Fold this sequence. Notes:
Layout: H1 6-22, H2 31-45, H3 50-59, H4 61-71, H5 82-96, E1 102-107, H6 113-124, E2 131-137, H7 140-148, E3 150-152, H8 156-165, E4 176-179, E5 182-185, H9 187-190, E6 193-197, E7 209-214, H10 223-236, E8 237-245, E9 260-264, E10 269-272
Parallel strand pairs: 1-2, 1-7, 2-6, 7-8
Antiparallel strand pairs: 3-5, 4-5, 8-10, 9-10
Amino acid sequence: xxxxxxxxxxxxxxxxxxxxxxxxxxxxxxxxxxxxxxxxxxxxxxxxxxxxxxxxxxxxxxxxxxxxxxxxxxxxxxxxxxxxxxxxxxxxxxxxxxxxxxxxxxxxxxxxxxxxxxxxxxxxxxxxxxxxxxxxxxxxxxxxxxxxxxxxxxxxxxxxxxxxxxxxxxxxxxxxxxxxxxxxxxxxxxxxxxxxxxxxxxxxxxxxxxxxxxxxxxxxxxxxxxxxxxxxxxxxxxxxxxxxxxxxxxxxxxxxxxxxxxxxxxxxxxxxxx
Length: 274
């Protein structure tokens, strides 16, 4: 491989070191994303170069954990992109209603907002009691926050607006209780969510499921890694299962384009062909 400059080589060696020492594989993530996060951490920590930071990563576990948090993707919100959830209600829920039990995989669930959003939607559509939601991420700190279901009060106005625009049928405030500066999601929403550590890059099939949601994660992967993850998703879905991606993502340039039909192209919702 040819490197444009020394820092590209140093980043490559750093990622290799992280993989060999800790088992987290960022080697096929988008180079722009990785470079931006690493250089930001280098500046914050006062390192003169990436090689110096690599030595710290290999010999200081707390610092390595800090860098892993930088490299992971935890941008999310409740009912993110309301039009997507409206499409779920109109085009996906009728399909899910045909199954006696339902398994849903939120891959890369971050701090859990979208898993709770799905639980609310399923509850309103009368499907939650026969559904298991598998919410997975490799970031254990994010998963711990997700399990708690505690979010800042400052976000609730935006979340409430998203919920209403998504076609919500109740008062959003009925799904949480306020506690000082935070809100706590109702226990009834947590009962059928299984939180689990799973790495899309290095781990295998998680479960056979009816619906996969992996939104705004694949944009951080290079083309080879996207194909690898799409293989994982394809093999995890039942025939006729639904794949939901983020608004900036597509299966068009992957090996699996011909294996899906489009349920809602604008919202990136695809159905696995029989």
